Amino acid sequence: MVYIALLRGINVGGKNKMDMKLLKKAFERVGMNSVVTYINSGNIIFTDNSQSRTKISHILEEAIHADFGLEIKVVVRSFDDFKKIMHSLPDSWTNDQQMKSDVLFLWDDVNDESVLDKLVIKPEFDTVKYVTGAILWSVDRKNVTKSGMMKLARSTIYQQMTVRNVNTTRKIYELMQVQAEEK
């Protein structure tokens, strides 16, 4: 089965530095196959046919701790999970000079629509949707400073998610599709 591992908070502001080649080797060392990394922010596509998402997440967190000495949370989503998120992501959402659009991938223990109640959402500026596994959030760039998204990093729920912009999310999906077609 094809999976994506999304690491939270690596290679940001000089903290939690990880070389992607070494990270790939760590994944392979613990039995993950067809490992491909995408950009430096901790997006790793791989295959595994014998373990649950939860078990894989635990194995990867332990491998990262063993190889890098870092306590990094890892969100794991299967290709089918990711496909459902992508089908809910509006094609019109962009991450460019006009629009800021992100996918907030949720830890399993907060993966419920009630998570929206813990966010500051300003409906006059923000478009926010819950889909199993993630929150989709978009705002016009001219309104970013007025958006509830600006308060996200100060919220307690922020520690239970990892964020990717829609451009990165779409590219990850393309890479996962390639792996799924090769299986």
TrEMBL record:
Which SUPFAM superfamilies would you find in this protein's record? SP0830-like (SSF160379)
**Alphabetized Gene3D superfamilies for the sequence:** bacterial protein sp0830 like, SP0830-like domains
| Designated name of the protein | DUF1697 domain-containing protein
